[in-house]
Amino acid sequence: MVRSVPEAVNRTIELESGAADIAYYVSPSDIKRVEENPKLSLLRVMDNTTTYMGFNCAKAPFDNPRVRAAVSMALDTIGIQKAAWRGVGKAPVGPVAPGVRYSSKNFVPHVQDVEGAKKILAEEGVALPMTVEIWTNDRKERVDMATIIQSQLEEIGIHAEIKVLEWGSYLENLKYGHHDMFLLGWPAAAPDPDFALTGVFHSSMAGATNFAFFKDAEVDRMLDDGRSMEDGPDREALYEAVQQRIDALCPWVYLHNDEQIVGTRRELRGLVLSSRGYHLLTPVTFE
To answer: How open is the CA angle 117-119-124, to the nearest 5 degrees?
Structure first.
């Protein structure tokens, strides 16, 4: 029997009491609690999700790639990830999660540069101070990240107001393009770069799943070509090029590569976690 238990702490309680044999997902705040319980086991695997802060690339001033880059430079993304996720996952370096085929190995960790960000904004004639909105759903870690981002943007003259929406309302409102910036995650449903990139960066998906409203003819062309190519060095080179171009145009600030974290009763055996988030239960047995 499968039951939906929306509150993370209640899932942990159900596991502790024996009312549940498997609890998915264990929140970062409950990891230590599960690990220290002799009756429970904790399973972890990196998954193929990238959580990001997207810009509305169709809305000034974020229709300017240099302005987007300046905002990214102002943020300590590694510190944000560590503070919000408390040892879960890691800070990304590019748009494709590391477990996905052809994820670029040529990106370097993000470095915060507040003075550099201020310089770019001045060069681009951005009138400061300015007020923007950061949208997010009510997941605690995303709200925490938005709060830290809000504080760090104040250093460059950007006052960010955080707007927290219920999940269904959030996705519905993102379609209309009224947002400035937003926090969201994108899972690669299969470990292939087409699944990781096309839905969120192809112009045909703008307003559907491309909530950054990012449009670039060269990226479109490469994504279209990559979808029909056979795996091999040529396809790998093409996806390296498209990741580099997306990174240069900066429609996203990369914030978090997530983990699948599952708690089980200790007597349960045979559960192997999948990075796709779909965990096969047929091999599961009990001692």
So the answer is: 95
Place of tokens 């969201």: 184
pTM of the predicted model over 0.90: yes
Residue 206 amino acid letter: A
Q: Which fold has domain 8-46+260-286?
A: D-Maltodextrin-Binding Protein; domain 2 (3.40.190)
Q: Shortest CA distance to 126 belongs to which of 98, 96, 156, 90?
A: 156
Amino acid at 51: T
Pairing outcome for strands 22-24 and 252-265: antiparallel
pLDDT (tens digit per residue) in 65-100: 999 999 999 999 999 999 999 999 999 999 999 999
* Nearest C-alpha neighbor of 254 from the set 198, 185, 167: 185
CA distance 207 to 213: 6
CB 166 within 8 A of CB 196: no
Tell me which amino acid residue 1 is: M
Is the CATH number 3.30.390.50 carried by domain 48-255? no
Residues of the chain with CATH 3.10.105.10: 48-255
Residues 6+ apart with CB under 8 A from 216: 201, 203, 245, 249
* Interval 261-287: pLDDT, tens: 999 999 999 999 988 888 889 999 998
